[in-house]
Amino acid sequence: MHTTYFTETIQNWQDWAAVFQSISAFEPLIRAILQKEKLPLGKVTQLTPGTNAVFRVEQLVIKIYAPKESGMDQTSDQKTELFAARYAKEKGVRAPQVVAHGSLSDRYDFAYMLMPYMEGQDLESVLRSSSKAQQEALGRALREATDRLNQPIPAFNTIDVLKDPERESRWRPYTAAFRTARRAYLESLPASERVFTHGDLCADNVLVTPQGLCLLDFADAVLAPRCYEGALIAFEYRSYPRFLRGYFAQDPASELTERLLQGILMHDFGGDIVKSVMPTALQMETIEPLRRAIQTILGGKA
User: Fold this and answer.
1) What integer pLDDT is reported at residue 3 of this predicted model?
2) pLDDT, tens digit, for every residue of 77-90?
3) CA trace torsion 267, 269, 270, 271 (10° rounding)
4) I need a labelling partner for 95 at 20 to 30 A (CA). Which of 21, 177, 197, 221 fits?
5) Using CA atoms in the order 180, 181, 186, 188, what is the torsion angle rounded to 10 degrees?
6) Which residues contact 30 (CB under 8 A, 6 or more apart)?
7) What's the CA gap between 251 and 228, in Å, rounded?
8) Contact 57, 30 (CB under 8 A)
9) How far is CA 264 from CA 29, 57, 186, 257, in A?
10) What residue ranges define each of the domains in the chain, with the CATH number in brackets?
11) What are the Cα distances from residue 262, in Å, to 62, 162, 244, 302?
Protein backbone atom coordinates (compact mmCIF):
# COMPACT_ATOMS: atom_id res chain seq x y z
CA MET A 1 0.00 0.00 0.00
CA HIS A 2 1.41 3.37 -1.03
CA THR A 3 1.95 5.88 1.76
CA THR A 4 0.79 9.43 1.04
CA TYR A 5 3.35 11.84 2.44
CA PHE A 6 1.77 15.11 1.30
CA THR A 7 -1.88 15.34 2.29
CA GLU A 8 -2.76 18.93 1.38
CA THR A 9 -4.98 19.65 -1.63
CA ILE A 10 -3.45 21.67 -4.50
CA GLN A 11 -5.93 22.73 -7.17
CA ASN A 12 -4.65 26.21 -8.02
CA TRP A 13 -1.92 28.72 -7.21
CA GLN A 14 -3.79 30.02 -4.16
CA ASP A 15 -3.75 26.51 -2.66
CA TRP A 16 0.01 26.28 -3.21
CA ALA A 17 0.65 29.78 -1.83
CA ALA A 18 -1.25 28.89 1.34
CA VAL A 19 0.90 25.87 2.13
CA PHE A 20 4.32 26.08 0.46
CA GLN A 21 6.05 27.49 3.58
CA SER A 22 4.51 24.94 5.96
CA ILE A 23 6.98 22.61 7.64
CA SER A 24 4.19 20.38 8.95
CA ALA A 25 2.74 19.96 5.44
CA PHE A 26 6.08 19.10 3.81
CA GLU A 27 8.10 17.33 6.50
CA PRO A 28 6.85 13.79 5.72
CA LEU A 29 7.56 14.37 2.02
CA ILE A 30 11.01 15.79 2.79
CA ARG A 31 11.89 12.76 4.89
CA ALA A 32 10.71 10.42 2.12
CA ILE A 33 12.92 12.24 -0.40
CA LEU A 34 15.96 12.10 1.91
CA GLN A 35 15.44 8.38 2.45
CA LYS A 36 15.09 7.87 -1.31
CA GLU A 37 18.40 9.67 -1.88
CA LYS A 38 20.09 7.90 1.09
CA LEU A 39 20.84 11.23 2.73
CA PRO A 40 20.79 11.88 6.49
CA LEU A 41 17.60 13.00 8.17
CA GLY A 42 17.57 16.01 10.47
CA LYS A 43 15.61 18.93 11.80
CA VAL A 44 13.59 20.77 9.15
CA THR A 45 13.62 24.58 9.39
CA GLN A 46 12.30 27.39 7.22
CA LEU A 47 14.28 29.48 4.77
CA THR A 48 13.38 32.72 3.03
CA PRO A 49 10.17 32.05 1.08
CA GLY A 50 10.13 32.21 -2.70
CA THR A 51 7.91 30.58 -5.32
CA ASN A 52 8.73 26.97 -4.54
CA ALA A 53 8.90 25.16 -1.20
CA VAL A 54 12.39 25.60 0.22
CA PHE A 55 13.58 24.28 3.58
CA ARG A 56 16.81 23.62 5.43
CA VAL A 57 17.62 20.17 6.80
CA GLU A 58 20.80 20.57 8.85
CA GLN A 59 23.52 21.27 6.24
CA LEU A 60 21.27 20.66 3.23
CA VAL A 61 18.72 22.81 1.41
CA ILE A 62 15.81 21.03 -0.23
CA LYS A 63 13.72 22.73 -2.89
CA ILE A 64 10.40 21.13 -3.86
CA TYR A 65 8.89 22.58 -7.00
CA ALA A 66 5.22 23.49 -7.37
CA PRO A 67 3.37 20.66 -9.15
CA LYS A 68 1.36 21.20 -12.32
CA GLU A 69 -1.89 21.14 -10.32
CA SER A 70 -0.90 24.56 -8.93
CA GLY A 71 -1.52 26.00 -12.39
CA MET A 72 2.16 26.82 -12.89
CA ASP A 73 4.23 23.74 -13.56
CA GLN A 74 7.64 24.61 -12.13
CA THR A 75 9.50 21.50 -13.27
CA SER A 76 11.12 23.58 -16.04
CA ASP A 77 12.69 25.63 -13.24
CA GLN A 78 14.40 22.48 -12.00
CA LYS A 79 15.98 21.91 -15.43
CA THR A 80 17.07 25.55 -15.56
CA GLU A 81 18.66 25.36 -12.11
CA LEU A 82 20.48 22.14 -12.89
CA PHE A 83 21.96 23.74 -15.99
CA ALA A 84 22.77 26.99 -14.17
CA ALA A 85 24.65 25.27 -11.34
CA ARG A 86 26.97 23.59 -13.85
CA TYR A 87 27.33 26.79 -15.87
CA ALA A 88 28.21 28.94 -12.83
CA LYS A 89 30.88 26.46 -11.78
CA GLU A 90 32.30 26.47 -15.30
CA LYS A 91 32.50 30.28 -15.22
CA GLY A 92 34.15 30.41 -11.78
CA VAL A 93 31.13 31.94 -10.00
CA ARG A 94 30.34 30.59 -6.53
CA ALA A 95 26.93 28.93 -6.36
CA PRO A 96 25.59 25.85 -4.54
CA GLN A 97 26.23 22.66 -6.46
CA VAL A 98 23.49 20.05 -6.70
CA VAL A 99 23.80 17.09 -4.31
CA ALA A 100 20.80 15.19 -5.69
CA HIS A 101 17.73 15.79 -7.81
CA GLY A 102 14.75 13.89 -9.13
CA SER A 103 11.02 13.55 -8.60
CA LEU A 104 8.78 11.69 -6.21
CA SER A 105 5.26 10.57 -7.12
CA ASP A 106 3.00 11.08 -4.15
CA ARG A 107 -0.42 12.67 -4.13
CA TYR A 108 1.18 14.88 -6.79
CA ASP A 109 4.40 14.53 -8.77
CA PHE A 110 6.99 16.62 -6.96
CA ALA A 111 10.27 17.54 -8.65
CA TYR A 112 13.00 18.34 -6.14
CA MET A 113 16.62 19.37 -5.79
CA LEU A 114 19.06 19.16 -2.87
CA MET A 115 22.02 21.48 -2.39
CA PRO A 116 24.46 22.28 0.43
CA TYR A 117 23.42 25.01 2.84
CA MET A 118 25.69 28.01 2.30
CA GLU A 119 26.79 30.02 5.34
CA GLY A 120 26.82 33.79 4.89
CA GLN A 121 24.89 37.04 5.18
CA ASP A 122 22.46 38.36 2.63
CA LEU A 123 23.89 41.25 0.64
CA GLU A 124 21.55 43.96 1.93
CA SER A 125 22.34 43.14 5.57
CA VAL A 126 26.02 43.59 4.76
CA LEU A 127 25.43 46.79 2.79
CA ARG A 128 23.53 48.35 5.70
CA SER A 129 26.55 48.00 7.98
CA SER A 130 29.26 48.73 5.40
CA SER A 131 31.21 51.90 4.69
CA LYS A 132 30.70 53.61 1.35
CA ALA A 133 34.03 52.26 0.13
CA GLN A 134 33.00 48.74 1.12
CA GLN A 135 29.66 49.17 -0.62
CA GLU A 136 31.41 50.20 -3.81
CA ALA A 137 33.72 47.19 -3.58
CA LEU A 138 30.71 44.89 -3.19
CA GLY A 139 29.18 46.47 -6.29
CA ARG A 140 32.34 45.74 -8.26
CA ALA A 141 32.39 42.16 -6.94
CA LEU A 142 28.81 41.51 -8.06
CA ARG A 143 29.57 43.05 -11.45
CA GLU A 144 32.58 40.76 -11.84
CA ALA A 145 30.35 37.76 -11.14
CA THR A 146 27.61 38.83 -13.54
CA ASP A 147 30.15 39.65 -16.26
CA ARG A 148 31.42 36.08 -15.98
CA LEU A 149 27.86 34.77 -16.31
CA ASN A 150 26.48 37.21 -18.89
CA GLN A 151 27.93 35.43 -21.92
CA PRO A 152 26.20 34.24 -25.11
CA ILE A 153 25.41 30.52 -24.91
CA PRO A 154 22.95 28.15 -26.62
CA ALA A 155 19.37 28.25 -25.36
CA PHE A 156 18.83 26.26 -22.16
CA ASN A 157 15.08 26.85 -21.88
CA THR A 158 12.29 28.01 -24.20
CA ILE A 159 11.59 31.43 -22.66
CA ASP A 160 11.60 34.46 -24.97
CA VAL A 161 11.81 37.55 -22.76
CA LEU A 162 10.28 39.80 -25.44
CA LYS A 163 7.58 37.58 -26.91
CA ASP A 164 6.40 35.17 -24.23
CA PRO A 165 2.80 36.28 -23.45
CA GLU A 166 2.92 34.90 -19.90
CA ARG A 167 5.59 37.46 -19.05
CA GLU A 168 3.10 40.29 -19.65
CA SER A 169 1.03 39.44 -16.57
CA ARG A 170 2.71 41.84 -14.13
CA TRP A 171 2.00 44.78 -16.44
CA ARG A 172 -1.74 44.12 -16.70
CA PRO A 173 -2.72 46.45 -13.81
CA TYR A 174 -1.16 49.41 -15.70
CA THR A 175 -3.17 51.71 -17.95
CA ALA A 176 -3.90 50.61 -21.50
CA ALA A 177 -1.98 53.64 -22.77
CA PHE A 178 1.13 52.69 -20.80
CA ARG A 179 0.96 49.06 -21.91
CA THR A 180 0.71 50.19 -25.53
CA ALA A 181 3.66 52.57 -25.09
CA ARG A 182 5.71 49.86 -23.40
CA ARG A 183 5.07 47.35 -26.17
CA ALA A 184 5.81 49.92 -28.90
CA TYR A 185 9.09 50.87 -27.19
CA LEU A 186 10.26 47.27 -26.87
CA GLU A 187 9.31 46.49 -30.46
CA SER A 188 11.31 49.51 -31.66
CA LEU A 189 14.56 48.23 -30.12
CA PRO A 190 17.19 46.85 -32.49
CA ALA A 191 18.03 43.19 -32.08
CA SER A 192 20.72 42.68 -29.47
CA GLU A 193 22.86 39.77 -28.34
CA ARG A 194 21.27 37.56 -25.72
CA VAL A 195 23.35 36.23 -22.85
CA PHE A 196 22.87 34.06 -19.79
CA THR A 197 21.32 36.11 -16.97
CA HIS A 198 20.54 35.06 -13.40
CA GLY A 199 17.40 37.17 -13.59
CA ASP A 200 16.73 37.67 -9.86
CA LEU A 201 19.78 39.00 -8.03
CA CYS A 202 17.75 40.42 -5.17
CA ALA A 203 19.49 40.69 -1.79
CA ASP A 204 18.16 37.28 -0.63
CA ASN A 205 19.86 35.61 -3.60
CA VAL A 206 23.32 37.09 -3.01
CA LEU A 207 25.27 35.84 0.01
CA VAL A 208 28.39 37.51 1.31
CA THR A 209 30.74 34.81 2.60
CA PRO A 210 34.38 34.80 3.73
CA GLN A 211 35.22 33.31 0.32
CA GLY A 212 33.39 36.06 -1.59
CA LEU A 213 29.93 36.42 -3.08
CA CYS A 214 27.80 33.33 -3.57
CA LEU A 215 24.77 33.47 -5.89
CA LEU A 216 21.64 31.48 -5.03
CA ASP A 217 18.39 30.44 -6.74
CA PHE A 218 18.87 30.38 -10.50
CA ALA A 219 15.24 29.38 -11.19
CA ASP A 220 14.63 32.62 -13.13
CA ALA A 221 17.75 32.35 -15.29
CA VAL A 222 17.06 33.19 -18.91
CA LEU A 223 18.73 34.29 -22.13
CA ALA A 224 18.22 38.05 -22.42
CA PRO A 225 19.99 41.25 -23.48
CA ARG A 226 22.65 42.32 -20.94
CA CYS A 227 20.48 45.21 -19.75
CA TYR A 228 18.05 42.69 -18.21
CA GLU A 229 20.37 41.79 -15.31
CA GLY A 230 21.39 45.33 -14.46
CA ALA A 231 17.87 46.75 -14.47
CA LEU A 232 16.72 44.66 -11.51
CA ILE A 233 19.97 45.40 -9.67
CA ALA A 234 19.53 49.16 -10.14
CA PHE A 235 16.04 49.07 -8.62
CA GLU A 236 16.81 46.48 -5.93
CA TYR A 237 19.83 48.37 -4.55
CA ARG A 238 18.66 51.93 -5.22
CA SER A 239 19.20 52.82 -1.53
CA TYR A 240 22.95 52.20 -1.92
CA PRO A 241 24.29 54.64 -4.52
CA ARG A 242 27.92 53.74 -3.85
CA PHE A 243 27.12 50.08 -4.48
CA LEU A 244 25.52 51.09 -7.80
CA ARG A 245 28.58 53.20 -8.60
CA GLY A 246 30.73 50.12 -8.19
CA TYR A 247 28.40 47.90 -10.20
CA PHE A 248 27.89 50.30 -13.12
CA ALA A 249 31.36 51.90 -13.11
CA GLN A 250 32.27 50.57 -16.55
CA ASP A 251 28.98 51.55 -18.26
CA PRO A 252 28.84 54.81 -20.26
CA ALA A 253 26.78 57.24 -18.19
CA SER A 254 25.16 58.65 -21.34
CA GLU A 255 23.65 55.23 -22.20
CA LEU A 256 22.86 53.81 -18.78
CA THR A 257 19.40 55.31 -18.26
CA GLU A 258 18.14 53.95 -21.55
CA ARG A 259 19.69 50.53 -20.97
CA LEU A 260 18.01 50.22 -17.59
CA LEU A 261 14.70 51.42 -19.02
CA GLN A 262 14.89 48.71 -21.66
CA GLY A 263 15.82 46.09 -19.07
CA ILE A 264 13.05 46.85 -16.60
CA LEU A 265 10.38 47.04 -19.31
CA MET A 266 11.28 43.55 -20.55
CA HIS A 267 11.94 42.02 -17.11
CA ASP A 268 9.62 39.30 -15.86
CA PHE A 269 9.31 41.11 -12.51
CA GLY A 270 9.33 44.60 -14.05
CA GLY A 271 5.68 45.46 -13.45
CA ASP A 272 5.87 44.52 -9.77
CA ILE A 273 9.19 46.28 -9.26
CA VAL A 274 8.09 49.55 -10.83
CA LYS A 275 4.83 49.84 -8.88
CA SER A 276 6.68 49.09 -5.62
CA VAL A 277 9.08 51.98 -6.30
CA MET A 278 6.72 54.51 -7.91
CA PRO A 279 3.52 55.29 -5.96
CA THR A 280 1.79 56.63 -9.09
CA ALA A 281 3.01 53.89 -11.42
CA LEU A 282 -0.46 52.53 -12.19
CA GLN A 283 -1.57 55.96 -13.40
CA MET A 284 1.27 56.36 -15.93
CA GLU A 285 0.21 56.70 -19.56
CA THR A 286 3.69 56.94 -21.09
CA ILE A 287 7.09 55.51 -20.19
CA GLU A 288 8.57 58.97 -19.57
CA PRO A 289 7.88 59.01 -15.78
CA LEU A 290 9.70 55.71 -15.52
CA ARG A 291 12.66 57.10 -17.44
CA ARG A 292 12.79 60.02 -14.97
CA ALA A 293 12.61 57.63 -12.01
CA ILE A 294 15.64 55.75 -13.34
CA GLN A 295 17.52 59.02 -13.80
CA THR A 296 16.76 59.81 -10.14
CA ILE A 297 18.11 56.43 -9.04
CA LEU A 298 21.26 56.98 -11.07
CA GLY A 299 21.59 60.54 -9.79
CA GLY A 300 22.85 59.16 -6.50
CA LYS A 301 25.38 56.89 -8.20
CA ALA A 302 27.96 59.53 -8.95
Assistant:
1) 75
2) 899 999 999 999 99
3) 140
4) 21
5) 110
6) 44, 55, 57, 62, 64
7) 14
8) yes
9) 38, 36, 11, 11
10) 13-116 (3.30.200.20), 121-299 (3.90.1200.10)
11) 35, 11, 18, 21
Total residues belonging to the chain: 302
- Residue 2: per-residue pLDDT: 66
User: What are the pLDDT digits (tens) for 46-75?
Assistant: 998 788 999 999 999 999 999 999 988 777
**Is the Cβ–Cβ distance between 68 and 124 less than 8 Å?**
no
For residues 167 and 274, is the Cβ–Cβ distance under 8 A?
A: no
In angstroms, the Cα distances linking 270 to 150, 169, 196, 230, 234 are 19, 10, 18, 12, 12
> How far is it, in rounded angstroms, from Cα 222 to Cα 272?
18
For 160-215, the DSSP string reads: -TTT-GGGGGGGTTS-HHHHHHHHHHHHHSPP---EEE-S---GGGEEEETTEEEE
Q: pTM for this one?
A: 0.92
The residues facing 64 across adjacent strands are 53, 112
Q: Give 85-106 pLDDT, tens digit per residue.
A: 999 999 999 999 999 999 999 9
169-206 burial code (b ≥16 CB/10 A, e <16): ebbeebeeebbebbeebeeeeeeeebbbbbbbbbbbbb
Helix (H) or strand (E) holding 101: strand 100-105
d(CA 263, CA 230): 7
Spatial separation of the C-alpha atoms in residues 41 and 62, rounded to whole Å: 12
CB 21 within 8 A of CB 46: yes
DSSP state of 68: G
- State the Cα–Cα distance between residues 9 and 22, nearest whole angstrom: 13
Residue 18: per-residue pLDDT: 96
